[in-house]
Amino acid sequence: MTKLAFDTGGTFTDFALLDDKGDLHLHKVLSTPRNPAEAVVQGVSELLEKFADVISIENLQVLGATTVVTNAVLERKGVETGFVTTDGFQDMLRIRNEGRYDLYDLNIKYPDPLVTRSNSYGARERIAADGSVMTELKEETVREIAGRLKEKGIRSVAVCLLHAYKYPQHEQRVAALIREEDPDIFVSLSSEVCPEMREFDRASTTVVNAYTRPQMAGHVAHLQREFAARGIDRQVLWMTSSGGLVPSRRAAELPVRLIESGPAAGAVAAAEFGRTAGEDSVLSFDMGGTTAKLCLIPNGEPNVGTDLEVAHYQRFRKGSGFPLKIQSIQMIEIGAGGGSIAAKNPLGLLDVGPHSAGAMPGPAAYQRGGTQPTVTDADILLGYMGTESFVGGSFKVSKDAAREAMTKLADSLDVSVERCAWGIHDLVNESMSKAAAMHATDLGVDPRSLPMVAFGGAGPVHAYGIARKLGISRIICPTGAGVSSAIGLLIAPVAVDLSASHPMPLEAWDVDAMNRLLDDLAAQGAEVVSAAGVPKETIANRYTVDMRHVGQGHEITIVLPDRSLPEEAFLTELRNAFFKLYRELFGRTVAAPVEVITWRLRASGEKDQVTRPHETVTADARKGSRQVYFQELGTFTDTAVYDHYKLPVGHEVKGPAIVEQRESTAVVGPSGVFHVDAHGNLVVNIH
């Protein structure tokens, strides 16, 4: 099947086209932040026109990753949203929970809720934790709330009633009543968005879904219309935060699950690139125009967590943002990308980020109105990125404009322009190496033992410096590094992640209840995955459970044993798996009863392979040379520049060198030796 993938980033929108012959074509256009769909339509149209002779439109599948949901939350540009909960709990979004991200800050602050207090309503009802109805739903109170929402012109509402994760009947009736009063309103139910325990986390997740749903639904519908006008009738498949693809309808209904779609696609690609290079476990390093993402990939698969947090009040401080109970690939994100702005802080020192020049106006070198120096400007001045070969030469940048912006900052710091540029580059490397070391250490891994897969427009530029700081001796820069997240979309399977909280102690195990619950999840999963065209008989189900000791506040995730085992053997295997992981995480075991809290399913189709053998060529791979700065040498030096695509397989070249692709540039310092392998990966060994 022909596939066309797009990944909307903060600065560029990337494309990867797998044509009828199996050849891979890559493309890149500037993003259009005001209307992200414009850049997508532009890039798709250009690819369809250029490769019309090798594309069967009727068999074309479009795949997408987007920042629409993320940006709507971070920039608070979602729709005005309503919130309906059990009467008496209207302040849930403000009270939050008992957690404090800084125990000693007496003036601790959190981001303002996405729903105002005046738009938070209480419905008269109450279902107890055991399912008994304490107060019947007073339908007149819901109709009154629906009338107020309609009067205010509110287009989307989140409904989160107590214990609805297990007993959703009142939520479902509330939704029906609201829709009777206003058929056009978007209603997000916590029992559908996040059927899990813990009221605040469930409410927070549902509110983010409601806040972004009209925007995402409009984005999806707009693209489907544009693609249909070009003869593409298949619905788009969208990347979720956990690394699976879902149909457009699912994406439009549950946009909260797409909040990390682009980075997730990059992690999927990094796992595949590591595999083709003969590495099972790698450290993924994805640096684009706005942010950098680091992800540990053990044994060929990224770690998937059950909690995420966004829109931190204090950047990157866990507990200071909106918690989301969704499954997502675990990674660390740093506000340092090519467009990150460098400035002098109040202490008179150099700072980089978190503010970014983005796509508009972009770095000063883009000559689109940007006047502040950025990481990209620094990399251009250091010779790491060529002005004539930027994005394959299709996008002209100005070294003079970069120097002019850098001069102002350098003068304020009383250093030379070159010293200022190196300071920016090295400061970014230092921040990312520290974050990578912390991420790996948290997971019990020595980062020095891992090869690094570097991609993104700026990833290969900074990989060498970061690797040296971490003690990493091997870097893998794949072909198409600048659009790797789009390539990840071509590889990723159609998959959906579902969950349901249903506490069950191991001492009071109910096999029938377990089977009913898991069979229901499997039926839901099959419905979603088969809707994307996957034959039901090929769908694979993977079950996990969140477990804890009775009375504890947090759970750990365990793979569920084979359900066909006898009950005693099943429970023994489950209990042993829990104690084994518990001991690995906390160094001890506890003599207390154990229970399952939440049941999870991942239903998925098969992964695709996107192989691109590197052709051995006889042409000279050296393009020329330019002056490049290397700290190891303490000066600028005349450095050879190579064309990645013309390097012969296996031929080793000693650094320093610059290796250029159309979408990215790799920097190899004096301690590096590099070659291209049979799959086109640029492999750098640091001695």
TrEMBL record:
Gene Ontology process terms (BP): glutathione metabolic process
Record PANTHER family: 5-OXOPROLINASE RELATED (PTHR11365), HYPOTHETICAL 5-OXOPROLINASE (EUROFUNG)-RELATED (PTHR11365:SF23)
Name assigned to this protein: N-methylhydantoinase A
Entry GO CC: cytosol
Domain Hydantoinase/oxoprolinase N-terminal, residue spans: 4-181
Membrane spanning residue stretches: none
Domain (Acetophenone carboxylase-like C-terminal) ranges: 512-679
Pfam families, alphabetized: Hydant_A_C, Hydant_A_N, Hydantoinase_A
Domain of life: Bacteria
Domain Hydantoinase A/oxoprolinase: 202-495
GO molecular function: 5-oxoprolinase (ATP-hydrolyzing) activity
Protein's organism: Neorhizobium galegae bv. orientalis str. HAMBI 540
